[in-house]
Design brief:
Keywords: Hydrolase
Protein name: Alpha/beta hydrolase fold
CATH superfamily: Alpha/Beta hydrolase fold, catalytic domain
Shape: globular
Number of helices: 9
CATH class: Alpha Beta
CATH topology: Rossmann fold
Number of domains: 1
Order of helices and strands: EEEHEHEHEHHHHEHEH
GO molecular function: hydrolase activity
Distance between the termini: 24 Å
Radius of gyration: 17 Å
Pfam families: Abhydrolase_1
Helix content: 25-40%
CATH architecture: 3-Layer(aba) Sandwich
């Protein structure tokens, strides 16, 4: 199957889906044209979607460097009508769904470099995929969740309403927070890794983004963008993404 060329993320192909036991996972697939350096799986976070501005900016950064981008709309996101109940989201389910799409990507483009990128718990998921897969070209993590415990403690620091919100909105996700941990997976992969995060992020404080970076066996680049929060977007973020992709040898 060939993805049609796309000069921008808004022109991407939205006709594909990965079948699963429960429901198909819709995909946004964009190819820069005939000359393709590789394919990246771009995984959104909790209540995320492929067309959110911060995800679109990551996709555009890859397209500009001749990488094909595959971004799934994973289950149980409030930003994706028809994806299932947001209160049923779990770390385990997010990783399992991302793994199904990763298998789809690997089957279709086995002869080009394959990379992983993720935002928030999408970065948690791709850490596990990188550990389970031999030879990914690189991992790019944006606002990365290193563990459920770290996410919980960040909410505790924000005050009782922040904790109550996740308990109310995603009780199964909250139940997994005590055990979910990406650090062991990060230590197992030798794929080059970069982190871009918002310096003012309250959900993934700077120390937790640094912990994700420090856990990686082959950490290459870290950028904390001033004035940015959990979903970083804008020219300064674009500059950080450019530097990250250069450090990962993903630039043309």
């Amino acid at each position: 199957m060939m993805a049609r060329s796309a000069r921008s993320w808004t022109e991407a192909d939205r006709s594909n889906a990965v079948p699963t036991e429960s429901q198909p996972i819709p995909l946004v697939v964009a190819s820069p044209g005939e000359s393709v350096r590789g394919t990246v799986l771009l995984v959104h976070g909790r209540n995320g979607a492929p067309d959110q501005p911060h995800i679109a900016q990551i996709a555009e950064a890859y397209l500009a460097r001749d990488w094909r981008v595959v971004a799934p709309g994973l289950p149980n996101s409030s930003a994706l009508p028809g994806s299932g109940a947001p209160e049923k989201l779990t770390f385990t389910g997010h990783c399992k769904a991302a793994s199904a799409v990763w298998g789809w990507v690997r089957e279709r483009w086995p002869d080009t470099p394959l990379a992983l990128a993720g935002h928030s718990i999408g970065a948690f998921a791709v850490a596990h995929l990188a550990a389970e897969t031999p030879g990914p070209h690189h991992v790019l993590a944006v606002s990365p969740a290193v563990s459920g415990r770290a996410l919980l403690l960040a909410r505790v620091a924000m005050g009782p309403p922040a904790v109550e919100a996740v308990e109310r909105e995603a009780p199964l996700f909250r139940a997994e927070m005590e055990a979910a941990d990406a650090a062991p997976a990060l230590a197992k992969t030798d794929a080059p890794l970069a982190v871009v995060t918002g310096a003012e992020d309250g959900l993934v404080p700077l120390k937790d983004a640094r912990a994700y970076f420090a856990a990686a066996a082959n950490a290459r680049f870290f950028a904390a963008v001033p004035g940015q929060h959990h979903c970083p977007v804008g020219p300064d973020v674009g500059e950080a993404l450019t530097a990250a992709l250069s450090a990962l040898e993903a630039s043309a």
